[in-house]
Structures are given as C-alpha cells and as structure tokens.
Amino acid sequence: MKYMSEYRDPELAKKYLEEIKRTVSRPWSIMEVCGGQTHSLVKNGIIDMLPDKVTMIHGPGCPVCVTPLNLIDKAIYLASEKGVILCSFGDMLRVPGSEKSLLEAKAEGADVRVLYSPLEAVKIAEDNPDKEVVFFAVGFETTAPANALSVVHAHRRGVKNYSILASHVLVPPAIKAVIDDAESKIDGFLAAGHVCTIMGNSEYHPLSAKYKVPIVVTGFEPLDVLQGILMVVRQLEQSQSEVENQYARIVREEGNPEAQKIINEVFEVHNQTWRGIGEIPDSGYAIRDKYAEFDATKKYNVNIAEAPENPLCISGQIMKGIKKPFECSQFGKTCKPTNPLGAPMVSSEGACAAYYHFSGMVEA
Ligand code: SF4
C-alpha cells in the first residue's frame, strides 16, 4: 500500500535496529507517550528486538484510558436517565464506568450512537429538535479542532439542543508531570506525532531545555518508531537534549495554525483530572463562557458521586510508566478485553490491550 508499506519495510527495520545496537552503550529508559506508538512497538515485536540497554516505558497517552470515571458515569446517566441521544467515538463505549459501560447502557435501551465526526452529532440534533444531543468529546489536542468546530457550527446554525461533554487531555503538561513524578525515571521521550501535527513543536522546547531530556516528535509506523528511538539514543549518548522531528513528512514546527485558532475560539486551558493519575495542572480544555450553552457539564449540572476505582487495577502506575501491564496481578486473568477491569484493557490505544493481543504472554 502506497505511503504505508514503505514505513513497514523489514530490511530497513533491521538496519535501524542494528544502528540502535551500534549506538547504545549504556542503559536508557525511553517513554513513548502515545498509545498508538505502544501498539506499534508491541504489535510489530519491536519491543523484543531492541537491545537490552534500551527500555521502552509506556506513557499516559491514551485519552480514552484517562477519561475520568465520574465523567463516564455522567455520560451514562445522561443517556439512561435524561433521555439524551449520547454520541461518541466507538472506543469510549466499552470503557467501564463505576457500574456499567455506555455499551451496556445502550443494551438496556439508552440511545447511544457511535459516530466518526462530531459534525454528525450536530446534524442529528437538527434532525431531532425535540431531543437533546450530547457528543462525548474525548481526545488529545488532535480531536479538539473537530469538537470545537462542531460547537461553532451549532452556534452559527442556532442549534440549541446540542452540547458536548468535553474531556480533552494535553500532552506537554503530561510529559512534565511524568518527569516531575519522583517514581519515574525517564531519559528521553517519543512525543506523539499526531498531536504535533495540530500544535507544532514549540511547547516541547522549554521542557527539553528545563529538564535536559531529548524529545523526538515521532510517528506511528514501525520505521517511524524505530527511527525515533534511534534519534533519542543518539542524543542521549552524546549528552544532548534537543527537540527533533522524526515525523517531518507530516509535522511542521508551527503545527496547524487554523486548527489552533478554532481550538482557542472554543476552549481554554484548565486543570484536568486524568483517570488513574489525578489532577495535572493546565492539562485539559474547558469550554469558554462564550459557548457555555454548548457545555453539557453546565447545561445539565449533573452531580454524580465520585465512585472508587477498582482497587485491583493498577492502571495509574502503568500510565506513568512505573509498571508494565504483565506486572498487574489481574492481567489476562480476571482482566481481559472481553471483561476489562480498567480502561487500558479496553481502548485500541491502551497498553494492557496491546500486551494482551500482541505480546504472546496470554492466549488471546
Ligand atoms: S491489566 Fe486490567 S486491571 Fe491490570 S492495570 Fe491493566 S486494565 Fe487495570
């Protein structure tokens, strides 16, 4: 397949691996921030082919996994008790809330719909003027422009029965929180290429300079990830700490200014709670007052008690890179994709699901 197979070439992959082996002389821990990169590492067997001195730590970069339990409970409540049409991207549906998932709520009769774009949800609202429509707006900076656009679109068209339940998480503050965590010891980072496509690289320079860590903006195909690792290792071996762009075929230094403009029109930065991790300052988007009527949190003023997480699930430690999925006592036993105890076993970007499906450690 054009523009795909060239980034999966086994011969080139071998060359990158050999170059990494030739370059590395000391043990290094490198965190890939995004769950898409985790899947690429595990699914393609890269994790097992890297030299022992290179340890990959799987980061918190799975927005579905870090969406607060309480917000999932709110979404389920709106769909089940308030009769709203609850729209969402597909991977949110099986994430466990405190009592059930959105998929289970749907099976019980709630109107829960899987969409590929929030603009479809605005159309559903226009077609159903007697119903309220809520879009569960989850994601990194990557999905924020489309979610913001849906709000502007609804505003311009005078659609009053549309709102979004926003849970956006921002990558640079998460990297900072990981570095600041006393338990984690990361020498370098692979930043998430798709996020930088929107936001550019400028937010990473102060982080790299302050903490003296290399940060390489990296794509998701096997060769992208291998080249990103090589670039980080080269910097570490030469005591450098720069921001480099492996994903230059997509990412520009300035990102996508038009997308940033629409994000800033609708959202402002706020402190965000990450499921399993806690609150990280300035790490999320809240809807600006100007668009408050489209903020489902304000519109419905739902008060749902904070439910405790499953005590057996150590997803917080996994997402901070302190433990690997197979170090969880429930991995592959009581916790499987068909019966997930925590979000990292559900999401297509979750580290536990990646190890379950591709590591060969369990019979999937
Ligand atoms: S294997 Fe399951 S229980 Fe363990 S951390 Fe992952 S999601 Fe949680």
Structure overview:
This protein has 364 residues and is α/β, with parallel strands linked by helices. The chain folds into two domains: 20-305, 3-Layer(aba) Sandwich (Rossmann fold), CATH 3.40.50.11740; 315-357, no CATH class. Helix content is 39%, strand content 18%. It is built from 16 helices and eleven strands. The protein has helices at residues 10-23, 35-43, 46-49, 63-66, 69-81, 102-107, 118-127, 144-156, 171-180, 193-199, 204-211, 222-237, 257-266, 296-300, 315-319, 351-358, and strands at 28-34, 54-61, 85-88, 112-114, 133-139, 162-169, 188-192, 215-218, 243-245, 267-274, 278-287. The strands form two sheets. A six-stranded mixed β-sheet has the order 4-3-5-6-11-10, sandwiched between helices. α1 (10-23) runs parallel beside α12 (222-237), α2 (35-43) runs parallel beside α16 (351-358) and α7 runs parallel beside α8. The mean pLDDT is 93.
List key phrases describing it:
11 strands; six-stranded mixed sheet; 39% helix; alpha/beta; binds iron/sulfur cluster; 16 helices; 364 residues; Rossmann fold
Judged by helices, strands and strand pairing, the structural class is alpha/beta
Q: Identify the CATH class of the largest domain.
A: Alpha Beta
- Ligands bound, unique: iron/sulfur cluster
Report the sheet with the most strands, covering strand number, pairing sense and barrel closure.
6 strands, mixed
At the fourth level of CATH, the homologous superfamily of the largest domain is HypD, alpha/beta domain 2
Our estimate of the beta-strand percent is: 15-25%
